[in-house]
Design a protein that fits this description.
- The protein is of the alpha+beta class and about 650 residues long.
- The protein folds into five domains: about 20-85, no CATH class; about 95-235, no CATH class; about 250-290, no CATH class; about 295-400, Phosphorylase Kinase, domain 1, CATH 3.30.200.20; about 415-445 and about 495-605, Transferase(Phosphotransferase), domain 1, CATH 1.10.510.10.
- About 30% of the residues lie in helices and about 20% in strands.
- The longest helix is centred in the middle third of the chain and has 20 residues, at about 425-440.
- The two termini are about 45 Å apart.
- The structure holds 2-acetamido-2-deoxy-beta-D-glucopyranose (9 copies).
């Protein structure tokens, strides 16, 4: 896997050369003869058409009509105006309705309209990269509701925070949140608790809309007047991605029912997971790849690698990864996460890999991506899954990790409860994971935060060696104060409560999540259980309650409960409790946690140390004050003190 820089450079030069030399021949268009190509000022390129026979299929049929009171015709899909179509990018610009919640002075009431868009069954999907959920208002909590998503934010105004044009920060009249991929319909909603009934003189309305980020610049007049709504009759521009059919290129090629669109010799088929496949011309495809490569900091990455010889990190091409994963086949999926989907793959060299396709990242993160990759590529720890490389020439970066064959800690714990897992094994997995996290926290400055510690992110090798995975996730974590995203329940139960208030991930957020993993190991219960009564759903709550009521035993896993273990289990439980402290400041560092787990392991593994306090002492590496206690024979006190698990230490 070693890649010397000179080879990397060669690869890079070849790739750029190939980009430059790519064919410059226009593709044969599939548009039938006699079809209009424009509507008003708007170009209508094939596969779109103004009559059913002119469009590749009904989804691409648009109407050109002149609305009442207008001079020029507009392009429309159903009732939605289309203002621009790009075949190269596979995008279309539409105008969709916003939702508002206003105070009506004459009726003395708050009214709202919850606008919705519905493109299910159409070729159009909201572009996650180009759009944002935008909320305006001085007392507003609003969100978009889709099938699987509730996404929104809270926008407020404060006397000491001046409203500024161009600034959308959450506490000055405007907030924004990222959109997930694949959304085809949504409706805007307002939390009724927040409204403008008391501030209507200054701010009559709140708004929520999903719109093109590039088309939005906050203006204070949006709050003080109704201009935001009135300018376009309550509409905002939105960018849609489109595909010919909701099939992959491969499926489309063999499907006899629907004609395959990319028949030209100079057009390639392009897959889009959410919108379906489409064609581009070949030359343009290369240009797009190059653009993504630049956007993701690819050139910077190469520059840096030049100065750091011998980095075992590879820049993969999209084609290579397509081949390795059988074109990202469903069958290859190892798991879905909040940040993307992981596929199993095999490289030409027979090396097994895990390939992670990320979900959307924002512009700033895109620019930093190459830099971050370089840092992550240098991480080398036996309990951390190795990052082998990345692919930057695609819309969202793809990460390539070493493949760990024996599943996740989650599977081990929860899949088969009759399977025996010794306390020693559990402690070792906990210790190794803690070590890995402590290493991440200390190996770079600023520290690398994991950001998504959970049992599904701890992988296991053949001999149950723990390998922490997905550590790159922290660079993808939202750190925007105004952004709250409820996407998957998966991470529920692990999330640091302090992060939910500050939106700031810290090393102590990892400690909290690790505390929950420790609980899973102790109890063999899931971190979050959707079934069952409300107060029983979160494992950490159940655990803290059990601790408080002195009923720890009720919640521990039977397999490890026995009279010999009781004391150790209490120690581990106490460590978990400290990890779960509400305030990050009161939690131990990952290093302290790892050290304590290590000491505990050694004591359990070497019971002979009971009889030999000096051995124990050197084992524990603790100050000599302990010796005097141990020589009294009251080992329980000595051990506790030695392990530094006494609360308050
Ligand atoms: C175009 O207009 C016709 C007649 O009003 C209507 O039946 C049809 O649904 C419209 N098609 C689209 C794609 O908007
Ligand atoms: C306020 O309510 C009145 C009475 O229902 C209605 O006529 C008027 O259009 C409303 N104003 C706004 C701005 O919606
Ligand atoms: C923001 O810009 C608008 C004009 O677009 C102007 O009327 C308004 O006063 C500006 N607000 C501030 C705080 O400068
Ligand atoms: C508006 O908010 C106030 C609290 O600020 C609440 O008492 C009132 O019921 C709300 N009105 C509506 C129509 O939701
Ligand atoms: C072919 O395409 C049609 C229409 O999209 C779809 O209903 C059908 O399932 C596809 N058949 C195969 C074999 O993929
Ligand atoms: C594509 O290329 C093949 C052979 O190179 C040729 O036979 C065919 O006519 C070409 N098709 C088009 C649409 O140009
Ligand atoms: C669960 O584990 C037990 C003990 O190792 C084994 O006998 C049993 O076959 C396993 N069950 C399944 C469904 O894997
Ligand atoms: C780990 O996976 C390998 C390959 O899939 C398998 O042969 C081995 O039995 C597994 N080991 C354990 C402990 O599950
Ligand atoms: C150990 O110390 C505790 C607390 O001082 C005491 O209650 C207990 O009896 C002692 N046990 C032994 C075996 O000395």
């Amino acid at each position: 896997m070693e890649f010397s820089f000179s080879r990397l450079l060669l690869f890079c030069l070849q790739a750029l050369w190939a980009l430059a030399a790519a064919a410059d021949v226009p593709a044969a268009r599939g548009r039938p003869a006699g079809c209009a190509t424009r509507c008003g000022d708007v170009d209508v390129p094939y596969p779109f058409g103004l009559e059913p026979r002119c469009a590749i299929n009904d989804g691409f049929w648009l109407n050109c009509t002149t609305p009442v009171g207008h001079a020029t015709p507009t392009l429309q899909y159903i009732n939605v105006e289309v203002t621009k179509i790009s075949v190269e990018d596979g995008k279309a610009w539409l105008k969709t309705w916003m939702s508002r919640q206003c105070y009506n002075q004459s009726t003395n009431q708050v009214f709202q309209n919850n606008a919705w868009i519905g493109f299910a069954g159409s070729p159009y999907v909201l572009s996650a990269d180009d759009n944002m959920v935008i909320v305006l208002g001085c007392r507003s909590m609003a969100y978009m509701l889709s099938d699987a998503y509730i996404i929104g934010c809270m926008s407020t105004c404060h006397e000491d925070v001046p409203l500024r044009n161009g600034s959308c920060s959450g506490n000055a009249g405007c907030c924004q949140a990222d959109l997930p991929r694949g959304v085809q319909y949504y409706q805007g909603f307002f939390n009724d608790f927040y409204n403008t009934s008391e501030i209507w003189r200054r701010t009559p309305c709140n708004y929520v809309t999903v719109m093109e980020s590039a088309a939005f610049t906050f203006s204070t007049t949006y709050l003080t007047s109704t201009v935001f709504y009135d300018t376009e009759d309550g509409r905002t521009p939105v960018v849609m991605e489109w595909g010919i059919a909701r099939q992959t290129c491969e499926q489309a090629k063999i499907n006899k029912t629907t004609p395959y669109a990319c028949v030209s010799n100079h057009s390639d088929c392009v897959d889009n997971d959410y919108a379906g496949y489409r064609c581009r011309e070949r030359r343009k495809l290369h240009r797009i790849k190059e653009r993504y490569f630049r956007q993701h900091g690819g050139l910077l990455l190469f520059e840096e690698m030049k100065s750091q010889q011998g980095v075992a990190f590879k820049i993969f091409s999209e084609e290579e990864l397509q081949q390795a994963t059988n074109k990202f086949d469903e069958q290859q999926v190892l798991g879905h996460g909040g940040h993307g989907t992981v596929y199993k793959g095999v490289l030409k060299s027979d090396t097994e890999i895990a390939v992670k396709r990320c979900m959307t990242i924002d512009e700033q993160q895109k620019k930093e991506f190459g830099k971050e990759m370089l840092i992550l590529s240098q991480i080398n720890h036996r309990n951390i899954v190795k990052l082998l490389g990345c692919c930057l020439e695609v819309e969202v970066p793809i990460l390539v990790y070493e493949f760990i064959p024996n599943g996740t800690l989650f599977d081990l714990i929860h899949q088969n409860h009759s399977r025996y897992i010794s306390l020693d094994t559990r402690l070792r997995i906990a210790y190794e994971s803690a070590e890995a996290l402590a290493y991440l926290h200390s190996c770079a400055s600023p520290p690398i935060l994991h950001g998504d510690v959970k049992s599904t992110n701890i992988l296991l090798d053949g001999d149950y060696t723990a390998k922490v995975s997905d550590f790159g996730a922290s660079i993808l974590a939202p750190n925007d104060k105004s952004q709250f995203v409820t996407v998957v329940q998966g991470t529920c139960g692990y999330l640091d409560p302090e992060y939910m208030q500050t939106y700031q991930l810290t090393d102590k957020s990892d400690v909290y999540s690790f505390g929950v993993v420790l609980l899973e190991l102790l109890t063999r219960k899931k971190a979050f259980n959707l079934e069952g009564p409300e107060h029983d759903r979160s494992l950490s709550m159940r655990f803290l309650y059990a601790m408080k009521e002195n009923k720890l035993e009720d919640i521990l896993d039977d397999q490890i409960k026995n009279s010999e273990n009781t004391e150790y289990l209490e120690e581990i439980a106490d460590l978990a409790r400290r990890c779960l402290e509400m305030s990050g400041m009161n939690r131990p560092s990952m290093k302290e946690v790892a050290d304590k787990l290590d000491r505990l392991r050694k004591i359990i593994k070497h019971p002979w140390a009971h009889e030999n306090p000096e051995e124990l002492d050197s084992l524990l590496g603790e100050p000599s004050t302990v010796t005097s206690t141990s020589t009294t024979g009251n080992f329980s006190i000595a051990k506790k003190a030695a392990m530094g698990l006494e609360s308050g230490r």
